[in-house]
Specification:
InterPro entries: SANT/Myb, TTF1-like. The chain has seven helices and no strands.
């Protein structure tokens, strides 16, 4: 459980890091707006950890992503049923449309943008959760037979109901 002081340190540290990096890009001019992607891409979590001091960089990163994810979606979580079915269908369709064969070929930023208001780490986690529902998933490639297994088709059937 994070204390209020730790939360404030995390928020301040991330805010300072993002604004400082934007200032460096804009010749020390104060940014008017912050691009959404900058809120979760390119953050040095080790430097954030140094400012928070009481948590590791992985704790800071996970806490930040959980906060930003909720705020980006107006506190509605699309990875929880019933919205999860719709989310999974969008994820599956993206893999079909891009005809990816290997896990390393996935552009997680592009997938996150396609899914809408989802940081990379969330789209990766949702994909892995979906993949684990498929029998012998370790032996299958990303597309093809993997996406036609019953647990995946169940998502589409459940969404239609």
């Amino acid at each position: 459980m994070w204390s209020e002081e730790e939360m404030n340190c995390l928020l301040t540290a991330v805010k300072e890091f993002v604004l400082d990096s934007l200032r460096k890009e804009n010749n020390n001019e104060e940014p008017v707006t912050v691009p959404k992607l900058r809120l979760y891409v390119g953050i040095s979590w080790v430097s954030i950890q140094a400012k928070v001091r009481t948590r590791s960089w992985t704790h800071c990163k996970l806490k930040w992503f959980s906060l930003i994810y909720k705020r980006m979606n107006h506190y509605k979580v699309p990875t929880v049923k019933p919205l999860r079915y719709w989310f999974d269908i969008k994820l599956i369709n993206w893999f079909y449309d891009n005809k990816l064969e290997e896990f390393g070929d996935v552009d997680w930023t592009a997938l996150s943008l396609h899914l809408g208001n989802v940081p990379n780490i969330i789209s990766q986690r949702c994909f892995l959760e979906l993949k684990r529902k498929v029998p012998n998933y370790k032996e299958l490639r990303l597309c093809g037979k993997f996406l036609l297994h019953r647990p995946v088709l169940h998502c589409m059937e459940s969404w239609r109901k």
